[in-house]
Design goal:
7-stranded mixed β-sheet, about 35% helix
């Protein structure tokens, strides 16, 4: 009986001014175990963050990813028990939903003995999710850049210093998905001019440079309108040594970069939101440099 376990990290995307082009993996993980059955049933069990959020059947995103793989190979999905143990908060911009779909594709590919190469599996996952930044970062780990040109995936791993960050997730009801179709030339130029400096700051761990280059003038001004106390929080954490703050993806998850004093910064964040009647959870996490971890076992 074949058993495959897939572990994938959370992803920080839309980092500062680098919208849709960079991804940073952090050491917060979801693991999915696939176990062959002696019948043709498909059972899904969930633990941890988001348990019960999705139907435990064909509509679960792990199963949707699995089915897309089998469809692409023109094969029938076998009987499986799928066990999900997730530690990534859902719906806050840390890539949990995409991670599930990727786990389904990578796990299914390994259950079949890897008929797809890693390149092919990456491309399938990116085209299915339309989120190459989250897919590539979750699989490769570290800092990545990627784009999907039609059906062609182009990506690179980028050098990144061994940073530790504070991740904060305020529990905000009815937090919206924020989009914009019009961007001023001035704001676009502001973001573009800072992207190379941000890359250099991440490469070298230069926190002064991170602080100068992190500002986003396209989405951040709108996102912070829906995060009560955002400006006060940023001012307070910088007083305690933080170099830069960014929302991840659409938010409301926020990532704080700092050389040290991480625990104090986490406590300050919790207090700022508590004063506004909002519970905020915080984690102090290193960058994940491994990406996907795959374990395969055979018994019987």
């Amino acid at each position: 009986m074949r058993k495959v376990r897939i572990a994938l990290p959370a992803t920080v995307t839309n980092i500062g001014p680098c919208l849709g082009s960079l991804g940073l993996a952090i050491s917060m993980h979801a693991s999915v175990e696939f176990v062959e059955r002696n019948d043709d049933e498909l059972q899904v069990e969930t633990l941890g963050e988001g348990a019960g959020r999705f139907p435990l059947g064909l509509q679960h995103p792990v199963v949707l990813g699995l089915m897309r793989l089998f469809q692409s190979l023109e094969k029938t999905v076998p009987g499986l028990t799928i066990r999900v143990d997730n530690h990534i908060p859902h719906g806050v911009g840390l890539g949990a939903e995409v991670t599930y779909l990727v786990a389904g594709i990578i796990g299914g590919n390994n259950m079949l003995g890897n008929p797809l190469t890693r390149e092919q599996a990456l491309t399938l996952a990116a085209t299915v999710t339309r989120r190459p930044d989250q897919v590539v970062t979750a699989i490769l780990g570290g800092l990545t850049t990627s784009l999907l040109d039609g059906e062609t995936l182009v990506y690179r791993s980028l050098p990144v210093e061994g940073l530790r960050v504070v991740v904060a997730v305020p529990e905000i009801e009815d937090y919206p998905i924020i989009n914009t179709e019009r961007v001023s030339q001035r704001d676009a130029m502001h973001n573009l001019s800072r992207a190379p400096m941000l890359l250099e700051g991440l490469r070298t761990g230069d926190h002064k440079l991170l602080g100068m280059a992190m500002e986003d003038r396209i989405f951040a001004p709108m996102r912070k309108l829906y995060i009560p106390g955002y400006d006060d929080m940023v001012a307070m954490v910088k007083q305690h040594g933080a170099s830069a703050v960014t929302t991840s993806e659409n938010g409301p998850a926020m990532v704080v970069f700092a050389a040290d004093n991480h625990r104090k910064i986490a406590l300050v964040i919790e207090e700022v939101f508590r004063e506004r009647g909002i519970t905020a959870r915080t984690w102090i996490l290193p960058v994940d440099t491994q990406g996907v971890v795959i374990s395969v076992a055979q018994s019987g």
